[in-house]
Amino acid sequence: MASNKKYWKSVEELNENSSIVETLRNNEFVEQIPVDEFLGDKDSLASGSTSRRDFLKYVGFSTAAASLAACEGPVVKSIPYVVQPEEIIPGVADYYATTIADGFDFANILIKSREGRPIKVENNNLEGSRTGANARVHASVLSLYDSLRLKKSKISGKEAEWSEVNAKVKASLEDAKATGGQVVVLTNTMASPSTDALITNLQAQYPTVKHVVYDAVSESNALDAFESVYGVRGLAGYDFSKADVIVSIGADILGDWQGGGYDAGYAKGRIPKNGKMSKHIQIEANMSLAGANADKRIPLTVAQQKQALVKIYNVVTGAAVGTSTIEKYDAEVMKAAQQLKAAAGKGVLVTGLDDVDAQLLVLAINTALSSEAFNPSATKLTRKGNAKAVAQLVTDMNAGSVHTLIMSGVNPVYTLANSKQFVDGLKKVKLSVAFSMKEDETASLTTIAAAAPHYLESWGDVMMERGHYSVMQPTIRPLFDTKQLQEAILSWTETATSYYDYLKAFAASNINGKSWNQVVHDGFSVSEVSSLSAGAIDASTSASKLAQAKSAGLDLVLYTKTGMGDGQQANNPWLQEFPDPITRASWDNYLTVSKKDAEKLGLENWNVANGGLNGSYATLKVGNTTLSKVPVIIQPGQAVGTVGLAFGYGKTAGLKKEMQVGVNAYTLYTNLNSNQSVTVTKEEGEHEFACVQLQKTLMGRGDIIKETTLEIFNTKDAADWNIVPVVSLDHKETPAKEVDLWTAFDRSIGHHFNLSIDLNACTGCGACVIACHAENNVPVVGKSEVRRSRDMHWLRIDRYYSSQDTFDQDVVVKNNAKGLSDSISTLTAMEDPAENPQVAFQPVMCQHCNHAPCETVCPVAATSHGKEGQNHMAYNRCVGTRYCANNCPYKVRRFNWFLYNKNSEFDYHMNDDLGRMVINPDVNVRSRGVMEKCSMCIQMTQATKLKAKREGRLVKDGEFQTACSAACTSGAMVFGDVNDKESQVAKLAEDDRMYHLLEHIGTKPNVFYHVKVRNVK
């Protein structure tokens, strides 16, 4: 019997005439949900081309992700805004222009912020910006959330208030003034005009104050040379896009040479246009990024490099300074000199030799060439360290003549070779202060450890080059009780103003008529500068000195790795796990040795049963300093008679245990000179490396990286140098593009995303790898897991060496092999790289195949294809069979072996609340047991479409981006919609140089590459 009972939700329902009752019957909510605030107005939505279903999928994705996350873990109480800032719209990212200036890396950047949290670095692409964010700059946002940061200042090891700190420093300054004691402000290169003005004000009040600039990795010799000629302590500016011939002697122009940032200009000249491209000749000892990208690489010792520089000087200027013959490579050096001279104004020479005479000779040669790429008036001001002044400071400290020492942005106890002398001198200083983000080696020994903010919590200004004024603005309130050095100086000089007000007033004379708000919005302002007039250069004397150079034993060439730099971000797990572009090893620094020298010294590398790379240990001795237990990697291309070792490792203070890796190369950095004479001896034991690529050579597989020469490119048809692979169809050779196992779909409607990668423009820098980490919440797994080939990088940059002198010769050798036995022996021999190989880089991520082999084997349809060309992963469907990884010919899928989030076994940023603040809320944090890989940043493409829909317009070309394409400053990666025939990516898809990776297997990828062209004539 049915029940006749009636139920109601409220007493109001008993009133039949109530308007509320009728509303509730038709709508769940009495008030309409204000979706227009984030979706745009109804007219814009109605006129858009995105379907209702597409929209629901987009909203459903983020909602489902949030719901799933809420179900998986315990409820975490959230604290709502008391007053929500007007500029923050939940779910919508804000971007703020700022500048990084940490003393080593300088760049105009944008910071992506979500709900008040900075989560990602982007390039500032406004015209005139000094951008080019490298891997370290992209990773710097994670350093903001370092759980080991100094949270409060300390006096003699005990926490103290800022009032106590300032009072103690003020009293010491007054005492020094009264007694005539020396006060030294020791800083890194801040390149900050307002800070220089503040220090000048401090000197006016306390006359014994002296400012010493110390760069951990010094360019002091180059600065001394430039200053002696042009009267400004800076470095010449270079624009490699204006050069037809580039000759570099020991300068990694695609790495950290003189502050870096040259890859964008370099790449412009490297892409063949109208039958032309620049020619790059690299003369060096260590294999560098620049050497790996050069058309011709000549490996020489340091003494031989100096001889080569004199030979080039003789050819260009007509001088006749006597030089020694360079064994084996003399003719090639002379050929390079002739090509440079023939290029005249379109030629440029640079050097990284740590020698004043070498730097003077370069200035003279570029002046003689009237090089268009050489611009001393655009003086770089991002390196100002003075090695002589630093040495004098250590002497003065030990003599007891330094009363007060105030340090900011430096860690000399770690970075000085004569660290013990500095520590001894520190004990004789009456008051020592270290402004530091960490309680590092130096801050732990000073009287006062002053807690300093991260650059994303700071105001500031930066003059990266003459006439280019940049502003640094905070993108988050200070997380801890920190203060900037500038605020402290204002307090010590009793200036009644904040640093912000001081900076705003100071900037008025530097911003070229712009308003303050406009400069903060843009991040920089550019003004015209007067030309610098050159003084006389005694080049012949410098050349004569260099011609006397001789090697005394092995040359040690100290350098900075692309990932770690000078080591100040050593507690950043993204950078520790970042594979070095050359060696492909992470979590280590090591001695790089040539194969010949390794055989003489008994040093070895070998692979073990689990696929890991092991190696010998060596002991290094420079003068009276010994460095033990240095791991060894045998490096193809290392000049015989030289070894290399990277700075930035071997730190212990202020680091998690997992990040305390490597050896401290600064201990061998005598007199801040990167070129040292060293004795190397083998040491007992074996070292375990975490190397992500053990396959070194291509073994003649020209279908992976296609190459040609500029001469062939210009004189033959594309069919000759971009060979279309063929397969057998009905026993006939048929172009692979015309054969298909699957039914094709019409993909011409809507968006269809493609990614273009130009192998001529890709320098292998790896900025894209870290950008992908940040955007997609890629976990850090640690050295042990990387060694097991369980790294989680969604994007890898394969690096290949040639087995013969060139890749073309490799193909010839492979093709000449006859029969099974000969083929096996030939291919086995081709696993061994040449002594001085050609090098090629190739970024590889999920190729988003239109006919994807992974999709056909997934038993639960966890991986499937979207109509816009992206290969999707539904994590909650994946059961971890790994069939897809086995069936992927590109090996780009990563199996998530463990739970990396909130797991003490993986004590990196995802294991603490502070570190998790960097997580992008638009992307799931994956759990164990699922397969993950590149998503072609679907969250970014969806957000771009939604933004255009809100504004009632079509998406413009260049708006669609992935994390990797947005990070690529060289222009190698271009992403977009190929259905938009006017888009750049659509035009690149029709280029003669375009090819697909492993095209013969018929997967029809949505990622394509461009044939690498070398200018080898």
TrEMBL record:
It holds the Pfam family Fer4_11. Residues 753-783, 837-868, 869-898 form the 4Fe-4S ferredoxin-type domain. InterPro entries: 4Fe4S_Fe-S-bd (IPR017896), TAT_var_transloc_signal_dom (IPR030948). CDD domains: PsrB. PANTHER family: GLUTAMATE SYNTHASE [NADPH] SMALL CHAIN (PTHR42783), GLUTAMATE SYNTHASE [NADPH] SMALL CHAIN-RELATED (PTHR42783:SF3). This is Quinol:cytochrome C oxidoreductase.
